[in-house]
Write a structure and sequence with these properties.
CATH class of the largest domain: Mainly Alpha
Radius of gyration: 22 Å
Shape: globular
Helix content: 40-55%
CATH topology of the largest domain: YacF-like
Number of domains: 2
Largest sheet: 4 strands, antiparallel
Amino acid sequence: MPGQQTGHAPKDVVITYEYPLHERIRTLLRLEDLFDRSLYFAARQEPVEHHVSLISLFEILEVAGRADLKSDLLQELERQRQLLESLRGNPVIAEDALAEFLRDIDATTRGLLDMSGKIGQHLRDNDWLMGIKQRTTIPGGVCEFDLPSYHYWLHQDVAVRRHGLMEWLAPLLPIRDGIGIVLRLLRESGKTTKQAAYGGMYQQMMTGRVAQMLRLRISRELPCVPEISANKYALNIRFISFSDSGRSRMCEGDLEFELTFCNL
């Protein structure tokens, strides 16, 4: 919750794994990752980095067009705004932080309402971009002899390329801001507990528990990764030894981890 303090292990000593239990949350997590990647590489300088940014933008277009994302975000932001408004005057909530967060929700809501038409329509209306997008489905399909105009663009000054990328990304940023608020609230919604997996296995019954996402935090020093399966009846986690050879086996011995059930 905005304004409250939470105690966690430092980020540099743990790896966080997030597992969505709802298709809508799965979509939001994918879009968050794609926006972060596209914006990161758009701010870089090399042509190959701007190529990655553009490919990520095309993936955003695909994922965001599969559901009524804008409407879902507006509904969730309004629901959260009303819940947060009810916390005004609560002595355990920092009023300044709460007021700032509510302003962020209001600004993001206005940005979403100002969006017109289908998400990413400005990209679909650009024949040049759609030509590049179509070629990206072919392995090696954007070589210079396939798309000389794109090869020319990649050799323009870095400022020209960066301006183009941000111009194409900008109309989508209200979506990114809405996703950021919803996922922040989701991540802060749960209470983190310490758990132990004996012999590399952990199981917990889900009777009466409602969650939209799980968060696991595991020491970076442990050479294993969690394989998670969950339904409304039970949560099962198998910790598998990591190997880049492709072979996998159960982790031996017992291990500790942090578990959070998140729900809006």
